[in-house]
Amino acid sequence: MARPYRQSRRGESAEETRRRIVEATRALHGEQGIAATSMKQIAARAGVSVGSVYHHFPTYDDAVNACGAHTFAENPIPTAALFDGATGRAERVRRLATAFFRLFAGVRAFGSVLADQERVPVLKPYVELERSVRLDLSRLAVGGDETAATTLAGLIDHGTLDAFTRLGFSPDAAAERVSELANAWLETLQTKEAP
Length: 195
What we know:
By secondary structure, this protein is mainly alpha-helical.
């Protein structure tokens, strides 16, 4: 009887160690960037040996991927469901800006993901996924017009939130301002197209 109990406790201990390593990785990425983080630093932050980190994550890319999966589980990338019940384009644009600015604010290391993707190529799929979803949802928000969609996707960018944050805006206040600007511009397009 004792043996199954020991195996269960060992499994719980391994899962707890893995969780601490992922949390340490995420904290370090947010503090100093992804390319600047080492497995030795992760081990020290998690309170485990470097060998334990390598046991759970044989490569740094494995640790980065586990951190990314954990982060996006807690901060999901928006889906088209965010438009459910929206009464028109202006509301869809506002919801889209709010959703992405909250995502960027929740993923503290997102700026580092963008900056470090050339030095840590495992980050590129995360960058491409976010950009692709943002563009697809921008198309849905504006009704398919490609120029309007790419412009909106450009406005609802991490760099835009970063600039507004440096000026003292909260993510929601920045989203409100960006959606006001985008909707005003979209109105001018509709006026030009009207017969």
